[in-house]
């Protein structure tokens, strides 16, 4: 049977490919071989965030709801193509506006992205009007944080801010999109996919509500605190968020150990990703309380790079090839059992290269290494580019491979991981 390629995952793969080219362009600029392009850093970041991760999550959210037992219905083709069109008209327009410094163009592009998001949110809630299972609420809550994050972006473009000013809006924007939207989807997906791919059950189902409420309430504090310039709310949200994250990792590691499977690079990517998510945690209070002593700007730059390339990109490396391999020939759906047979496991070279690169990038934020910061940045992003290239080869291979590969997947036992979490 000829495999049908998911249009959202195809666009995510294309944007990741363009993002790698942008990173290579940044490296040539750092070596003095080319002239710098305006706003290249932020364009590169948005290739990964809106360009790749948002595309992938738009494509996968309805299928993820179905796979965790939250819905038995399917979205219409018309609604899904409408979302795809709005997103893929809006994002390039937004990029053009950012590159050209045109607020009007950027606002028009952002408006299309917001319309696509509203349409997706309606789809998600229609599909889960009678939700079943604890994991479905991760996916139902996540889009609301993206709505807030996009609204904060409009505030920055139009110079409309809360008590926290422009920098408070930036923090709220990043926290809503990353620590809220993406983190909730990632948590629900990890709690489902790790036991499903190993053919086992979730090790600690009672920790699922701890993860959900820890991430949700923590993200609310992390978004509202900077916007309101209320540090106590930010610190409180951060503390609660750490509790939810620890509960998630205990479940992931415990499930993996209980399954008897050997350690692999995919779980290494998960653990590495969450390492770079929590690295900024001890720095945040210091930057806020001692701004004249602790170098806030370098730490903020390293933290954003860590969230985008250390966390987001690394989670994509762990699971996007699985999602791409799992499309089963029907639109807007995937088959996890088939994915377990067909998906290419990430390589250890990819894992090591990316995480060593992130160590180098984070060292640039520390005063003892300020004298060699440029060299560390160049070396760190070179290693990230190497891992990125290996990942793209795996992703495109999984995306276009014929669905008949991998043998008879129907003989593989169906996972009962979600039933244990209900």
TrEMBL record:
Transmembrane in keyword set: yes
Keyword tRNA processing in record: no
SUPFAM superfamilies: Cytochrome c oxidase subunit I-like
Stretches of the chain forming a coiled coil according to its record: none
InterPro entries reported in the protein's UniProt record: Cyt_c_oxase-like_su1_sf (IPR036927)
Stretches that traverse the bilayer: 7-24, 44-69, 81-100, 106-126, 138-158, 178-197, 204-223, 229-250, 271-290, 302-326, 347-365, 371-391
Keywords linked to the UniProt accession: Membrane, Transmembrane, Transmembrane helix
Protein's UniProt name: Uncharacterized protein
Organism: Haladaptatus paucihalophilus DX253
